[in-house]
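Lab meeting, action items carried over

1. Structure of the two-component assembly. Owner: GW. Status: complete.
Input record:
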Amino acid sequence: MKDMKNNKNNPIEVLRLHLASEMHSVDCLINTYMKSETAPIISKLADHLINAGGKRLRPLLTLAAANLCNYNGTSHVKLAAAIEFIHTATLLHDDVVDESLQRRGKPTANLLWDNQSSILVGDYLFSKSFQLMVEAGSLKVLSVLADASATISEGEILQLSAAKNINTDEETYFKIIDGKTAALFAAATKVGAIISNMDETHVDALTNFGKALGISFQLTDDLLDYTGFEESLGKNIGDDYREGKITLPLIKAINKSSGDEIIFWEKTVGKGVQEPSDLKQALFLMKKYGALNDTRHEAIIWATKAADHLEIFPECEIKTILKELTSFVVERIN
Amino acid sequence: MKDMKNNKNNPIEVLRLHLASEMHSVDCLINTYMKSETAPIISKLADHLINAGGKRLRPLLTLAAANLCNYNGTSHVKLAAAIEFIHTATLLHDDVVDESLQRRGKPTANLLWDNQSSILVGDYLFSKSFQLMVEAGSLKVLSVLADASATISEGEILQLSAAKNINTDEETYFKIIDGKTAALFAAATKVGAIISNMDETHVDALTNFGKALGISFQLTDDLLDYTGFEESLGKNIGDDYREGKITLPLIKAINKSSGDEIIFWEKTVGKGVQEPSDLKQALFLMKKYGALNDTRHEAIIWATKAADHLEIFPECEIKTILKELTSFVVERIN
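Predicted assembly:
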């Protein structure tokens, strides 16, 4: 698997170089909009998260989609910044909800400041994203992002309801990741196509590309939570298991378990009663039933779907990078 | 002082009767938009708060402003519902931030469910308000509401930073209430004027009316926290004092205190070390220095300003009710 940040040949870095000047404008806009004269703590807290080495994959996708559609205006920069703000707001609220202590290898904002600040700064960033979208001036785009925001919240709430429920099925899991990840990926690429005035077929193709890429991305994230290396991930292995977060590797293992194994899942995930050594047993069962390989296979299927949706676009450099990105997303190690 | 809910002669009730058919449409829209097929818990939690006997003053203000401007479209209903959703989302997050146990005489959602659900359902309602605004179809209105949302968050964050700081000055207090209350009141009336295509003078007049009414409303709220009756308020007296929330009655009393009195404030508010009997001493000092009367006087000044801003509108029934509302807001007991 490939390192996401350090490998200069990775498609995200290639994309970033290819779109360097527009991405620089996005960064400037982000830094301008996260300032608040009224409440200086906002800038500090937002800066901690925004400039802490995030991949900025979502804004890159908006710029890339616009580039693929030969867009030549300036709205894509505003929308890319808006999308990064929605993402950051979601992360701030997620870390409070999950009581997370680490993100991207650094202490979370809720740990450094407090939950209250994380909630309110999340709200502030969401408002700022809203201002940026309005500035972009397209009601159609605003509608897409309003719908995506609602879907994101629904996904997060569904995930909260499913926590510790070992009867959660794959259909529910896919609804959750559609909300928490795929909806914003899809919106990021869709708005790039919309502002470029593409026809419905091309808008749909880029939407479906974003959605499939997002699903593949989240499946890989959920897999890495069990199979990654802590140093490169910047978080602990088995966090999902310890929090009782129901992801595909777990669902697939539980579905094939029986007898004492079910009792083990019920105790450690359902009731959340865990010994440190239980993670090893969980991983043993996941391997025994091929749950990790099956999840990886599923991630590859979605990555392939993502690449296929790009086929209707003419060959060009950005298309090549985006296709490489679909493979990279499942091969990465962080 | 007048009971806000039970007195059928109160201007809010008169307004509600006057705008009954449109308000019914707002209620229907609210009930439709707060449903989620993906995550049923949303409807339950939102219903708890939305249908728990709130005054719905903000959506009424949007309808009233539109009515005053002879608006004859349907967007005002969508915007009124959107504004109530923003308000409800803010309340849900506030109750988590303040760790409140009671609102409107009932247990808060964060107590009945959990903080996580309150955060995420707040996000969901904010997204739904965003969808409703987009449906109303005016970029100018979207811009007003995006700006208001950012100002609200800034006010809340400033309030959090000022908590327990007994050196907070009146200027900071007014910035806080401008954000947490006046911004949404002002936006509620402003959008009613904008969708009615009023000229700048009339848009400004209705904006300033909303803003002044909001300030007067919040000043009265902060006063009632020390002078109200628990049964009619639906919450405990002295909550702000116990939480170290710095409001005008406290600032005015602290400003005139000296010697042991300052030590008392520093201990009970600054350090948050309180005996149950300290509230009595706090009230004694507030009365000694006229802080409660001065706050009430300030509330009346802002109510008068609000009424004055309506003067440029021709006499009509809705104008009369809105003027009565400005007096009522400072005379209410809950």
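2. GW to write a short summary for the group page. Key points so far: Chain A has one domain: 11-331. The two ends of chain A are 9 Å apart (CA to CA).
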